[in-house]
């Protein structure tokens, strides 16, 4: 019996696929091109389902609610579109955003919105705005009574990252972070730069905290 390897021209280089395909073709008349195509299809199948599995893991991070603290936004004039931006960034981080609500810069309104979210059982409540030094920047004061435990590591990480990124309002934020019941609550500043930088900092930390909370 003639070896299938001898049929492969020496000038073209003998490959494993060529030898294997020739042997199979001789034994069962299978076209070597079909073997190569089947191998490619198998690799594509595995890659596709691996990506799907990764997407499912990301989708299971938790539920989130966004509270935009802004007098104009509360009256339907959110020209900066901060709510949709935060919702988009949360979704990219794997959170399901239950809702985005806008409230005036009033301590009672802010506290009621945060407390309603906590009672609703979301995993993360992210407030945007009201963390500066102005007279109506009262989000930290509204948030503090709701927190069972402060997470100063997150607070400092947001401020440090904000300063490094050039988001001055984020770096000088008085925003708080902590646990209320089974919910993580975080305040961030409301410029687009502070939102983007704050979300990049908060998202991985939030995932870690939520995972730890769920163990109890």
Automatic annotation (TrEMBL):
It comes from Gordonia bronchialis (strain ATCC 25592 / DSM 43247 / BCRC 13721 / JCM 3198 / KCTC 3076 / NBRC 16047 / NCTC 10667). Transmembrane segments: none annotated. It comes from the Bacteria. InterPro entries: MoaB/Mog-like_dom_sf, MoaB/Mog_dom, MPT_Adenylyltrnsfr/MoaC-Rel. The keyword Membrane does not apply. Residues 65-209 form the MoaB/Mog domain. Pathway: Cofactor biosynthesis; molybdopterin biosynthesis. This is Molybdenum cofactor synthesis domain protein. GO terms for biological process: Mo-molybdopterin cofactor biosynthetic process. Gene3D superfamilies: MoaB/Mog-like domain (3.40.980.10). SMART domains: MoCF_biosynth. Keywords: Molybdenum cofactor biosynthesis. The keyword Transmembrane does not apply.
């Amino acid at each position: 019996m003639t070896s299938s390897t001898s049929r492969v021209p020496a000038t073209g280089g003998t490959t494993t696929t060529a030898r294997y395909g020739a042997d199979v073709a001789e034994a069962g008349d299978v076209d070597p091109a079909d073997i190569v195509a089947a191998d490619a299809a198998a690799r594509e199948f595995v890659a596709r389902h691996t990506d799907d599995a990764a997407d499912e893991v990301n989708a299971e991070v938790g539920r989130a609610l966004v509270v935009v603290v802004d007098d104009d936004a509360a009256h339907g004039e959110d020209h900066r579109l901060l709510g949709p931006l935060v919702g988009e960034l949360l979704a990219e981080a794997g959170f399901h955003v239950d809702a985005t609500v806008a409230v005036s810069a009033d301590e009672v309104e802010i506290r009621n919105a945060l407390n309603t979210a906590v009672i609703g059982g979301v995993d993360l409540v992210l407030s945007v705005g009201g963390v500066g030094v102005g007279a109506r920047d009262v989000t930290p004061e509204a948030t503090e009574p709701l927190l069972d435990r402060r997470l100063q590591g997150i607070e400092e990480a947001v401020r440090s990252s904000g300063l490094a990124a050039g988001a001055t309002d984020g770096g000088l934020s008085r925003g708080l972070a902590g646990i209320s019941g089974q919910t993580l609550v975080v305040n961030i500043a409301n410029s687009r730069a502070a939102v983007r930088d704050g979300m990049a900092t908060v998202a991985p930390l939030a995932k870690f905290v939520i995972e730890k909370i769920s163990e109890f």
